[in-house]
Amino acid sequence: SVHRPTFWRIIRNKSTEEFSGVPYNMTLLNCLLSAWYGLPFVSPNNVLVSTINGVGAVIETVYVVIFLVFASNRKARLRTLGLASAVAAVFTVVALVSMLALHGPARKLLAGLAMTVFSICMYASPLSIMRMVIKTKSVEYMPFLLSLAVFLCGTSWFIYGLLGHDLFVTIPNGCGSVLGAAQLILYAIYRNNKGNAAGAGKLQGDDVEMSVDGRNSKVADGDDRGATGSTKAGKMVSQV
Asked: Quick one: where's region Disordered (predicted)?
C-alpha cells in the first residue's frame, strides 16, 4: 500500500505529527459507500467496484485505528474519533434508507449520489495539505506515493466509468484525477524543499539575531569612541 511509509513513520515515532487524518476517514467512507453501491441488489454488474472497495475499507479502517492510537495530542485524537463516528453514521443511514425505504432504480440513485458526493469530498480532503505545501514551500507532509496513487486511482476509475457508461463512477473520479494531477504539480515545484520549512524559519531567526547583535556592536563601538574622545578632550583642557 502507498500509505505504508507514512504509517511506518507514525508507528516508529509514536506520533501522527502534522499528518492529517481527514483523507483516511474520507477514503474509508468512500470505500464503504462504493462497496455498497457495487452490490448486486443495489447496482447490477458492478461486482468489481464492490470487491475492490470492500478490501479498501478494511485497510482504511486499520489506518484510522493507527491514527487514533498514535494521535499527537488529545485534540487530534478527539477530532479523528469524531470523524470516524461521522463516517459510520453516514454509511449506516445511507445503507438503511436505501435498503428499507427504496427499491430498484431509486435505491441505485440514492447510493450513487451518496457515493459521488463523498468521493468528491475524499479527493478534495488533501486540499488543506496542499495549502500547507504552498504556505511552507515544503512537501514533507504530502507523500509523493499518495499523490501519485490519487492520480492513478482517479484516472483508472474515470476510464472504467466511461467504458461502463456509469456517471456515478465517472464524475467523482474525473474530479479525483484533476486534483491528483494538481498534487503532483505541487510536488514537482517544491520537491527540493522537503523538510526545509522549519530550517528556513530557524535561519531567518538566526539572521535577525545576528543583525541585532551587529547593531548592538556598532552602538557599543560608538560609545567606546565617544568615551575615548571625551577622555582626550579632558586631557587637552588639563594641559591648557
From this structure: 214-240
* Axis-axis angle for helices 74-100, 105-124 (nearest 10): 160
Asked whether residue 154 is domain-assigned, the answer is yes
Instruction: Tell whether 204 is covered by a domain.
Output: no
Q: How far is the C-alpha of 117 from the C-alpha of 161, rounded, in Å?
A: 16
Locate the DSSP E strands across 41-173: none
**Residue range 109-156, pLDDT digits in tens:** 999 999 999 888 888 877 778 888 888 888 877 778 778 888 998 999
Residues whose CB falls within 8 Å of the CB of residue 222, separated by 6 or more in sequence, listed in order: none
* CA-based nearest residue to 177, from 160, 189, 198: 160
Q: What is the DSSP string of 80-91?
A: HHHHHHHHHHHH
Predicted TM-score of the model (pTM):
0.68
Structure confidence at residue 174 (pLDDT): 93
- Does 50 map to a domain? yes
In a domain? residue 203: no
Residue with cell string 478527539: 78
Q: In whole angstroms, what separates CA 128 from the centre of its chain?
A: 6
10 Å CB burial of residue 122 (0-12, 13-18, 19+) is buried
Number of domains in the chain: 1
